[in-house]
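Request from the bench team (R.T.):
"We need a structural guess for the complex before ordering more 2-acetamido-2-deoxy-beta-D-glucopyranose. Sequence and SMILES attached. Just send the tokens back."

Command: build protein-2-acetamido-2-deoxy-beta-D-glucopyranose structure.
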Amino acid sequence: MWCNMKGTLMCVLVFITSVVCEVRVDPLVLVSSQGLVRGHKASDGDYSLFLGIPYAQIDPEDPFGPASDPAVFKEIIYNAIDGTVQCPQMTNEHESADNEALDCLRLNIYVPFKASVAKPLPVLVWFHGGGFARGSAGEYGVSNLVKHDVVVVTVNYRLGPYGFMCLDIPTVPGNQGLKDQYTALNWIKNHIGSFGGNPYNLTIAGQDAGATSVLLHLFSSNDRLFQKAIVESGTPQSEGMFVNSDVNAAIKIAGHLGFNTTDTQEAIKFLTTTPHDLVTAAAYELDLQLKPCKERSFSGIKNFVETDPFSLTNTRKVSRTSVLIGYTSLERDSLSSDYFDSDPFVTKLQNNFNLAGDELERAARMVRRFYIGDHAVSKDVINELEQFESDFGHNHPTERVITQLLEENANVIYEYLFNYVGDSGAKGAGHSAELNYLFNMQNVVPRRSEADQVIVDRITTLWTNFVKYGNPSPRGATDLIPVEWTPVTTEMRPSLVIDSDIRMEGRVYKERMAFWDLFYSMYGDLSKLSRDCSNSPYMCC
Ligand SMILES: *[C@@H]1O[C@H](CO)[C@@H](O)[C@H](O)[C@H]1NC(C)=O
Ligand SMILES: *[C@@H]1O[C@H](CO)[C@@H](O)[C@H](O)[C@H]1NC(C)=O
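Reply to R.T.: structure attached below.
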């Protein structure tokens, strides 16, 4: 069953292996142009794992530049048993883990036993979160998803200084990490059939930075290598997900490491010979915001992101892609202790809009009164402040993107609000809360109550139905999910509220969202990200 036409020889191999070792037959797959891959069987379900398959390679002489095709395996059979390799993480160097490597462009494939080359299953490709600075493919246990008969692929991509420096030079124009993801999608399209996945039934999905990535793939002018998209708690307009290019980033990092130069090429040359943990630690200490950016164009170089996040457009792709999108009920639930020291309303607007002086004061007053009335900024109004942070950072950006998708003739959009907190006593579901039900997250011991297990069953059923049929509730209400999830239209914006009592709700947070709709109709043009900064070497204003 692991064979295709090209792999007739492999059928023989698999056959021989199975005769010789009757106890345990590890699946063997031929990846054309790379070689044979051996996976193994899962201990927690009826599926096989192929971990750490290289889908591209980074040039050690130019780790900031484009990746190239993966090398042919050195071994006769590549043992795909290590899914823990991570791209260099942008943390301080003391936290740098042994499994971090520059050679990190790998993916993990999880295949239900039921899949075969003759009867391939739909594919879910997961891009991890972590603010484009941290995270890896190996953090996600997928047994609850694969049991619904979908193939799952999780993908590493370059992060921080290696993935997201935007230097306005042809070799490092920006968004290398997104281009890695696109390379991975191409690999998956070409090879997933040999693993029993259907390359024409493919959903890209992600959370946080992964969700932002999904939307950037949807809007990019590259080929559409997917049919459906899942977007969880992240958009290019969400706070901290998109930046104006910092063309001096390489110079700053080199300088921080003791190499003084004003020449970006010199800096790059220095950083290439510097151990990666020092480079990422320097970027971390400098608090550089290395994220997706609008790239400068160079002849012969294909851009990934060509506009600011407010101007993204691709009607042709959007109108053919089904989208499942949403957020959690309390995206920002941990305000730091110094949060209350300054006026968060002024700070927020100052950081995000070209507003100053009286105009800034006036706008900030309006927002302050909306959220906390005449109260002073203090812990007494922490709930309201958390709402403000969640609305500004995530909720309204998601609603804006939905509007943008509708204007682009969206195919079909299903919106959700995740509000389940179980017996945690939390006021609302925080950022990433839903991941604990979709996946078995690494380092989280899944101690699930019966009620928690119902959420697992519901969310994995809804998500995989969407992956399979482009509709999370294709048969309407069922025993497990007693509501039909109806899509958003230009007139109506229903959300599925995922909670102990699962239900449909019309236009969630409607007053708060209407407030920000009005705010953006007044000040949207002044957003620091919507301004065309292409001719300025520095961040606008
Ligand atoms: C780099 O420049 C700074 C100030 O511009 C100076 O203090 C420092 O000594 C220089 N370092 C080296 C290694 O030249
Ligand atoms: C995708 O897979 C599902 C379930 O296997 C199937 O019903 C559907 O027709 C497939 N869609 C396409 C476009 O192949």
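Two things stood out. Residues 1-335+394-523 form a domain with the Rossmann fold fold (CATH 3.40.50.1820). The mean pLDDT is 92.
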